[in-house]
Write a structure and sequence with these properties.
Number of helices: 7
Strand content: 25-35%
Bound molecules: adenosine-5'-diphosphate, magnesium ion
Structural class: alpha/beta
Helix content: 25-40%
CATH class: Alpha Beta
Distance between the termini: 28 Å
CATH superfamily: P-loop containing nucleotide triphosphate hydrolases
CATH architecture: 3-Layer(aba) Sandwich
Shape: globular
Radius of gyration: 17 Å
Order of helices and strands: EEEHEEHEHHHEHEHEE
Largest sheet: 6 strands, mixed
Strand order of the largest sheet: 6-7-8-3-9-10
Number of strands: 10
């Protein structure tokens, strides 16, 4: 099992006010599974993904990544876990503007002190179908191309778990489909598990399972919301 949530609660505190975000979420993700996370804005999807990627810790309950309870780790161990086992793709612009595409892709390898970073980055860009974009700056790329670079970067260190937060949210339908196709294809080749928050009916339909969040809790049963 790649990921397990047991009765996970999360609240934020802003100006001494408690803002609940997740309220007792229990879920699991098997190796190689693609699970879509759906639900309205503000229902807790990003919070859930941050906990799943050890970018944040639960207020209560347990999050386990590949059998390791995130609350049991110190900051160094959490950073190591994130850098070695997790890949993130976000909706918003996320490439470093002063680096070329291939330099962006090799960044996680540089951070992890891996040798042959450039060659591995180029291989991943090849798999993602964007090898010809290696030397471009982000401002010279289309939105879809940028997301493909972001996907290559998220997968370059061969993480067990890819977390994606509305990765096609800023793209037109056609480009979104292309980017999703790249993701699904590459998952088949690498066997990466994917947990993806999405408002795209097509992306949700392509998943092995759908989890629907509503006000910080999972709606029981596999479900698609009436309105995405
Ligand atoms: N850093 C934060 N500080 C305070 N409240 C937050 C923070 N992040 C999210 N929230 C609140 O937590 C709830 C869940 O938000 P979020 O996880 O971003 O939902 P979604 O991604 O589904 O839109 C919302 O009420 C939101 O306002
Ligand atoms: Mg969100």
């Amino acid at each position: 099992m790649v990921l397990r949530f047991h009765n996970v609660r999360k609240h934020y505190t802003v100006a001494e006010r408690r803002i609940p975000a997740l309220d007792g979420v229990t879920l699991h993700l098997d190796r190689g599974e693609y699970v879509a996370l759906v639900g309205r804005s503000g229902c807790g999807k990003t919070t859930l993904l941050n906990l799943a990627g050890a970018a944040d810790l639960p207020s209560g309950g347990e999050v386990e990544i590949e059998g390791v309870r995130t609350s049991s780790l110190d900051d160094d161990a959490l950073t190591r876990l994130r850098r070695t086992r997790i890949g993130f793709v976000f909706q918003l612009l996320q490439l470093l503007p002063t680096l070329s595409a291939v330099e962006n892709v090799e960044l996680p390898l540089q951070l992890a002190g891996v040798r042959n970073a450039r060659a591995r980055a180029l291989r991943m860009m090849d798999l993602t179908g964007i090898a010809d974009l290696a030397d471009r700056q982000p401002r010279q790329l289309s939105g879809g191309q940028m997301q493909c670079v972001a996907i290559a970067r998220a997968l370059v260190h061969d993480p067990g778990l890819l977390l994606a937060d509305e990765p096609t949210g800023r793209l037109d339908t056609q480009t979104a489909e292309t980017v999703m196709g790249v993701l699904i294809d590459i998952r088949r080749q690498l066997g990466t598990s994917i947990l993806m928050a999405t408002h795209s009916p097509a992306a949700a339909a392509a998943a092995d399972r759908r989890l629907m969040l509503s006000n910080g809790t999972l709606v029981p049963g596999e479900s698609l919301p009436p309105r995405l």
